[in-house]
Design a protein that fits this description.
The complex is a heterodimer of chains A (290) and B (320). With 290 residues, chain A is mostly helical. Chain A has one domain: ABC transporter involved in vitamin B12 uptake, BtuC, CATH 1.10.3470. Chain A has eleven helices and four strands; from the N terminus they run H-H-H-H-E-E-E-H-H-H-H-E-H-H-H. In chain A, a hairpin with a 2-residue loop joins strand 2 and strand 3. With 320 residues, chain B is mainly alpha-helical. Chain B has a domain of 214 residues. The longest helix of chain B is centred in the C-terminal third of the chain and has 27 residues. The radius of gyration of chain B is 20 Å and the shape is globular. The two termini of chain B are 33 Å apart. Classes of the chains: A mainly alpha (290), B mainly alpha (320).
């Protein structure tokens, strides 16, 4: 039997990892909730944002935390353009078709990254990367604590924005009833593009917070895409609260799975949760409909 | 004899003569092309005709490859005898995934995502359980005799791939012209309407995924015998799933020749980028370049050309 102290440390580490997952999943669930698109390119776009953070640091020496506003703005713009240029044009019709289009995008992005950046694993070397904070028996890496706090802060800001601002209200109106929103004079297509942009901006933020303690390769997107879908399905497609709760559950599952089942087999927990939720309760924990 | 039949016979004759005329490298290219068309056809039965888009078809490929390899390496079976068992295993996994997913009422994107998750579960298991030797993979001892399902001359493995491809075309043809195919298309176009017409939607979908799984597993054994090595990321990695989906979607999902046309297109793009890469040194990574081209084609075809490249050959009235 494992020492409770080790389990405690595992749970804490899982919670910290879950913080960034929440940010990634909130972006995915927002896009689904508003546009009813399953954005399969989500992982690939995160990978792209991580490369942006890496190159900003490598070429210009910009610290990833300093780059945060810049990368968020850039990711928003990229997402907005991607929607206007590609996804929005083709996003009508069967939902599998849209899934296939975002799959096509992810193939293009992954392989373009491999073509231009090569297959090597890239990391950022910042002075605070090796610092730890001691909580009980747990030694927690400082960058992970920062990313946890910043993720939650950003999610709170986004939540406030959605609740209070005019654009946020318009987004929620479109998510609820797009015909009605159009009738009261909301530019629905513009709201779609903005929502997609915000979803990708979340990835930009996640990339800045991940890079000091993580690495990037052209296949990094694969590692996140199933995790993000699992969180969103677990929490309920389109639910913000669900994405937050799901993110923490998955973070802890991953940490404890690794602890009890080992590095290899431990990853199985996420896929199993995904399958079981879809089979047994497709509305998830907080979703209203399948 | 109809024009199509003549064209098919001419193509078959060309495919039979081809390896006698070209160097070994091109024999191998042709073999891969036919094999990819075969795998694509297995995807096409479920994804094309029945409209059950799968992102994790590789799970059947991997189950087939591992079943025959384990029987051969660990239990000393002859690979030809292990082949049908591998197909049974692939069919069984197809049946299981279909019963679970369709019982739960999963459709469209949700079905696609759950197949991806199943493939991931199998990949992790193959990485962890002892009888697959984990991440080390499994090596089949080289013993190049035909009775051992290994061939010294690449021409024989080419002809075997050709035979598989022709059989898969005949299966697709049989399905397309029969009532089973008609029921599948009805399910694809409108599941609720199909049910209202008295079609047992659940049973038909289970049937087609079982068949598709068995076919794909046959491809897995073929692959293992050709390369004499498999590991979890080859056998259950997302790349092969995407390849099967791509060739079929690009060539034309739900058409008999779609996967073959798509595979020809993929091969031409591959070889063209290889040629380009030898001229432009900056493009030394051939594989990603051709996949970029293919990803763009996928987006354009899904958006603008729902019948794929096959749609270009057929002139028919546009339906609304």
């Amino acid at each position: 039997m494992l020492d409770p102290q080790i389990i405690f440390a595992g749970v804490l580490n899982g919670l910290l990892a879950g913080g960034v997952y929440v940010l990634v999943a909130v972006g995915l669930t927002l896009i689904y909730g508003v546009l009813h698109i399953i954005n399969f390119a989500h992982g690939s776009l995160l990978m792209l944002a991580m490369y942006a953070v890496f190159w900003l640091w490598r070429l210009l020496g910009v610290d990833p935390y300093v780059a945060l506003p810049l990368v968020i703005a850039g990711a928003f713009g990229f997402g907005w353009l991607l929607y206007r240029g590609v996804i929005g044009r083709f996003s009508h019709g069967r939902d599998e078709n849209i899934l296939l289009i975002t799959l096509g995008l992810s193939i293009v992005i992954d392989n373009a990254a491999l073509l231009f950046f090569g297959g090597d694993t890239q990391t950022i070397d910042v002075p605070y990367a090796g610092r730890f904070v001691e909580i009980g028996a747990a030694f927690l890496p400082l960058p992970k604590i920062v990313s946890f706090a910043a993720s939650l802060l950003l999610c709170a800001v986004l939540g406030l924005y959605m609740a209070k601002s005019d654009t946020g209200k318009a987004i929620r109106a479109v998510a609820k009833e797009r015909q009605g929103a159009r009738l009261v004079g909301i530019d629905v297509d513009n709201i779609f593009a903005i929502s997609y942009g915000i979803g990708i901006a979340c990835l930009g933020a996640a990339a800045c917070l991940l890079m000091p303690s993580y690495y990037v390769t052209p296949t990094s997107g694969h590692a996140f895409v199933l995790v993000a879908f699992t969180i969103v399905v677990l929490g309920g497609m389109g639910s913000f609260v669900g994405a937050a709760v799901g993110g923490f559950i998955i973070g802890i599952t991953e940490a404890l799975g690794g602890l009890f089942l080992g590095e290899q087999l431990g990853q199985i927990g996420i896929s199993l949760i995904f399958i079981l939720i879809l089979l047994l309760k497709p509305t998830g924990l907080f979703g209203s409909r399948a | 004899m109809s024009r199509t039949a003549l064209l098919c016979l001419a193509a078959l004759a060309a495919a039979l003569v081809y390896p006698l005329l070209v160097p070994n490298y091109l024999v191998n290219v042709g073999m891969l092309m036919l094999f990819t068309a075969f795998l694509g056809q297995s995807w096409n039965l479920a994804g094309g005709y029945a409209g059950q888009t799968s992102f994790g078809h590789v799970v059947f490929f991997g189950v087939g490859a591992y079943t025959s390899t384990i029987l051969q390496v660990t239990y000393g079976w002859n690979p030809w005898l292990a082949w049908p068992i591998a197909m049974l295993a692939g069919g069984a996994v197809g049946w299981m995934i279909a019963v679970l997913s369709f019982r739960a009422g999963l459709r469209g994107s949700y079905f696609a995502l759950i197949t991806l998750a199943f493939a991931e579960v199998f990949r992790i298991l193959a990485n962890s359980v002892p009888f697959t030797r984990g991440g080390l993979g499994m090596l089949i001892k080289a013993d190049q005799r035909p009775e051992n399902f290994q061939f010294k001359d690449p021409i024989w493995i080419y002809y075997l791939a050709l035979a598989l491809c022709v059989i898969s075309l005949l299966i697709a043809w049989q399905i397309a012209r029969g009532r089973f195919g008609a029921r599948l298309v009805a399910i694809r176009e409108n599941e609720d309407a199909a049910r209202a017409l008295g079609i047992d939607v659940f049973a038909e979908k289970v049937k087609v995924l079982t068949l598709s799984g068995a076919m794909c597993a046959a491809g897995g054994t073929f692959y293992a015998q050709k390369y004499l090595y498999i590991d979890p990321s080859i056998a259950f990695g997302v790349d092969k799933s995407v390849e099967m989906l791509l060739v079929t979607m690009v060539g034309g999902a739900g058409t008999i020749f779609g996967p073959l046309i798509g595979s020809v297109a993929l091969t031409v793009i591959n070889e063209a980028t290889r040629g380009l890469a030898s001229v432009v040194p900056a493009l030394k990574n051939v594989q990603p370049l051709s996949l970029v081209v293919y990803g763009v084609m996928l987006v354009l075809i899904v958006a603008r050309l729902p019948d794929g490249l096959m749609g270009l050959f057929r002139r028919r009235p546009r339906h609304a």
